[in-house]
Amino acid sequence: MDITRLTPDEQGMVEWPTLSNDRKAVVSVGVFDGFHLGHRAVISRVVELAHKADAFAVAVVFDPRPGLVHRYAAAHNGEEPAADMVDSQALTSVDERLRHMEELGIDHVLVVRYTLAFAAKSYRFFLGQMVGKLGMRTLVLGQDAAMGNNREGDVKAIANLAAATGVFELDVVDDRGPGETRVPPDAQPTMPTTWGEPADPLAAMTKAERRAWSKKHQAKAVRVWSSTNVRYLLSQGRVKDANAILGRPHAIEGTVVHGEERGRTIGFPTANLGDDVTGYLPVDGVYAGWLIDGDKRWPSAISIGTKPTFSEKTGLHERVVEAYAITDNGEWLDLYEHHVRVEFVGFLRPQVKFDGPDELVAELKRNVEETKRLTA
After folding, report:
1. Are residues 186 and 164 in the same domain?
2. Which one, out of 78, 170, 205, 349, has a CA that is 20 to 30 A from the CA of 297?
3. For residues 319 and 305, is the Cβ–Cβ distance under 8 A?
């Protein structure tokens, strides 16, 4: 898979590469954050149609997320975020999204730096560039996709443009999943107060109770298969529901660093991740999951906690991620400076203060047994 990274100029113009002088392209456009089942359906359709037409399978990926750029600009007098700004709300790094695309058979990925000048271009101009520069003959989109200035290029508008010009076709994929759900727009991460995976609070409600809950929380309708919903679920500790939408365990990646080593003193040494973690951190708590180093993986009890200090990179409270790997012989793993992956399988319990080391050790032992069961 070929990867090209492109930065628009000050006027928002992009120097699109010429993929071929005679071979056409099937293209999809988006952020693909999280690369959930809806994204997978869209990209799989791109590859399917490209193979049928002997065309290139192409994905145009925006980075950083448009939501980050526009929110930052609104709060900073129209300025754009710095290139090295950490997007704490991104579910996955761009590199992980590209790995999934390569697995599905995409030929070319064009990673475009999303800027305000680029966003101001009309969808007609953008799609004209796709046709003229990339040789796009089919555009594949999800049902509620939108692009261009003020998101004016929705599926209906693009379908009308395709019919009027006759230079490309629009193929719309059902990427909604099982309908819609309701998500509070300003929901804050909320750690569950009970042990075990949290249930859907709406599941046992009547229609009237759901309406009342939605009104109270000003919840908006979103697709079940959406990055917004996955982010919300993880912020509430509902890992299993999030994983069902992703089609795989949610994961973060980072480098193992030296911690305070208190776990080692009570027989539970952990691998501590440094500050440069990629991927969305679920809400504070203890989780069951996996610690992965290359082709080696161990069931792990994972702790996420918040420090009372702020990170200069994100403007949020600093978070600490520790993974206790369950090994066959019970030995500690020396993974310092290793780049590792942490996958989340289920929520075990909230962060609580124990009366003493004996009570803590007893609880950690229970967490280990539950982790073994969930990762079996």
Report:
1. no
2. 349
3. yes
